[in-house]
Amino acid sequence: MPSIEERMRKRFILMNGDPVLRQAVEAAIPEKWEVTEATGLEAFEEWQEILLHRFMLLNLEDPQINDPIELIDQIRREYQLNIPIFCLGGTREIRDRARSARADRFFDREEGLQRLPEFFQQFAW
Asked: What is the predicted pLDDT for the residue at 5?
């Protein structure tokens, strides 16, 4: 069982395997924030570990992520978690499928990177 201190750490998940995107995201991370990077949910030993993060950035265009729609569906339907999922990139078709799986917001890659400071501020509670 995680401690209160563990739960209060400022962390987010970056579902991504692209080193260029990773570098851009890392450049935007404010002090006291931590990133957990993964390409699948198997990176988390227990589904409850996902709840220790304040939001997720999901690269819809990353070929290392086997099926981003299934990933979203597993978080929402199987785990029944309401962690905010912000999607970067993707075609209209994949965004529509991600929307149906209940992802929260969709941004082109550059717009999403520009909005990162806003996300960090919004979830800094």
From this structure: 80
Residue 47 per-residue DSSP state: G
Instruction: Tokens for 60, please give them.
Output: 């819809």
**Residue 46 forms beta bridges with which residues?**
none
Q: Judge contact between 106 and 37, C-beta under 8 A.
A: no
The residue ranges of the chain whose pLDDT is under 70 are none
Measured between its terminal Cα atoms, the distance across the chain in Å is 21
Indicate whether this model's pTM tops 0.90. Answer: yes
| Contact (Cβ atoms closer than 8 angstroms) between residue 113 and residue 120 | no
Exposure on the CB side of residue 28, measured as CA atoms within 13 A: 19
Length of the chain: 125
pLDDT at residue 125, as a whole number? 84
Provide the strand spans (E) within 39-113: 56-59, 85-88, 105-107
Dist. CA 4–CA 27, nearest whole Å? 28
| Residue 58 neighbours by CB distance under 10 Å | 25
- Tell me the backbone φ, ψ of residue 63, rounded to 5 degrees: -70, -15
